[in-house]
Amino acid sequence: MCRVIAIANQKGGVGKTTTCVNLGIGLARAGKKVLLVEADAQGSMAVSLGIEEPDELDVTLVNIMEKVINDEDVEPGEGIIHHEEGIDFIPANIELAGLETSLVNVMSRETILRQYLDSVKGQYEYVIIDCMPSLGMITINALVASDSVLIPVEAAYLPVKGLQQLIKTIGRVHRKLNPGLDIMGILLTKVDRRTNFARDISAQICEVYGEKVHIFGNCIPLSVKAAETTAEGKSIYLHDPRGIVAEGYFFLTQEVLAGEK
Ligand code: ADP
Ligand code: MG
Q1: Are 46 and 98 in contact, with CB atoms under 8 Å apart?
Q2: Distance between CA 206 and CA 87 in Å, rounded?
Q3: Which of 16, 62, 125, 243 is the most buried (most CB within 10 A)?
Q4: Which residues are CB-contacts of 83 (< 8 A; sequence separation ≥ 6)?
């Protein structure tokens, strides 16, 4: 059985990519077979995993999705890169923005990514999709391909409006395109433990959403160590193993594993 998780929030800079990489590698460290898929034209997941120039890659998610659109076969393992920390990943780059525009005229345009993932899911226990900061057609593809959505929220201001829109979009995808989709939970990120502000935000989020949406008990603290990993091409577990962010992602991984049915 494979579980597909989309990491989504249409706001940028909230920790989607950082969460995708460190949850994915956390699950791999717990012995799970994991594939990370970058559904973001920025290529920042590729960079975080050690690819210096994603825009120079020959094969990315774009080529794979184009093959699905054109009914061409995707070779086994095509476009999949093995990372030394025990995960596989499919990078993306700027070309994904062009693909998003051209999807408008494609038949079954919402299901292209799902069609591809259905063919590789058998080899993994978790597929985690790093979404772009928008609710456009590529993000819809990610939601249609997923079993659940993890929503990172930066504990910096009360993001009620954006969150409402995201939850509404997830609800629409659930009703119209993917009845199996649920919200795994809201994850508070970049929590500054030195202030009460983050605690206020998390209390408010619990108040507004807590009845409908699970809020992860464990949050990810703010630390410059997390920001440094992007340039290092490795996870927080190697960069700062004893730090608070490694601990945060370790406990998040445990929560995700505990949620398995
Ligand atoms: P998104 O994918 O939502 O745009 P990122 O994961 O790329 O967000 O994070 C945005 C920026 O914040 C990056 O520079 C990243 O290194 C940094 N960052 C992520 N998590 C933390 C954290 N816990 N503490 C400090 N900086 C963080
Ligand atoms: Mg990102």
Answers
A1: no
A2: 33
A3: 16
A4: 25, 49, 50, 89
Burial class (CB in 10 A: 0-12, 13-18, 19+), 249: buried
pLDDT band at 210 (very low <50, low <70, confident <90, very high): confident
Q: For the segment 6-33, what is each residue's pLDDT rounded down to a tens digit?
A: 999 999 999 999 999 999 999 999 999 9
The residues with which 176 forms a beta bridge, in sequence order, are none
> Of 223, 166, 207, 215, which is closest to residue 186 (Cα–Cα)?
215
> How much distance in Å is there from the Cα of 154 to the middle of ligand 1?
9
Indicate whether this model's pTM tops 0.70.
yes
**Ligand showing the shortest atom-to-Cα distance for residue 43:** 2
**What is the Å distance from ligand 1's center to 84 Cα?**
22
Q: Which ligand is in closest contact with the Cα of 38?
A: 2
Going from the Cα of 199 to the center of ligand 1, the distance in angstroms, rounded, reads: 19
Distance 92 CA to ligand 1 centre (A): 18
pLDDT digits (tens, 9 = 90+) for 222-250: 999 999 998 889 999 999 999 999 999 99
Nearest CA to ligand 1 atom 20: 15
pLDDT in tens, 124-139: 999 999 999 999 999 9
Ligand 2 ion: Cβ-proximal residues, 5 Å cutoff:
16-17, 44
Considering every ligand atom shown, identify the ligand nearest to the alpha carbon of residue 11 and give its number: 1
Q: Is 163 helix (H, G, I), strand (E, B) or coil?
A: helix
